[in-house]
Amino acid sequence: MTAVAIFWDYENCRPAGNTSGYELVNKVRRAVQSFGNVSLFKAYLDVPLESSNPRSTIFHSELQSSGVTLAYCPHNGKKDVADKMILVDMLAYAIDRPAPATIVLISGDRDFAYGISILRLRGYDVVAIVPPQVHSSITAQATSVLNW
C-alpha cells in the first residue's frame, strides 16, 4: 500500500475551539485512509499565537499523543515562515520516498499551488484538504480535494 504524508498548515486551517485533538486526527486519518497508510503527520504553527489560549496546550498535547509532530514556526516579524517550512518538508519527503506516494496538504493557501503541481508532475498524488474559502489554484492542482 502507498505511503501517505500529511502536512497541516495549522494557521490556515484552524480547528473549531471545542474540537478534541484525538477526534480531529482520527477524522483526518479516516478521510485519507483510502490513499494508503499514514507514515508522517506534521502540523505547523506559531507558538506565541497559540499560547494565549489555555485550551491550546491541551489540544497540542492531544495532537502529539495521536502521533502528530508539532513543528513550531516562530514568525519573528517575517511572513510565510510556516509555508516555507511546509514546502521544504514536502519536497524533502518526496526526495526520500520516490513515487508512488501520497502527500496530503491541509491548507487553502494558494502559495502551495506551484509545489503541488511539481509533485504531481513527478508522479505523486496530492490530496488537498481545504477550508470553505479556498483559492481555485489549489483545487485545480490537487489530485483529490476534501473539505476541512
Automatic annotation (TrEMBL):
InterPro entries: Marf1, NYN. Residues 4-143 form the NYN domain. One of its GO terms (molecular function) is RNA nuclease activity. GO terms for cellular component: peroxisome. One of its GO terms (biological process) is regulation of gene expression. Pfam families: NYN. Signal peptide: none annotated. This is NYN domain-containing protein. It comes from Rickenella mellea. The lineage of its organism: Eukaryota, Fungi, Dikarya, Basidiomycota, Agaricomycotina.
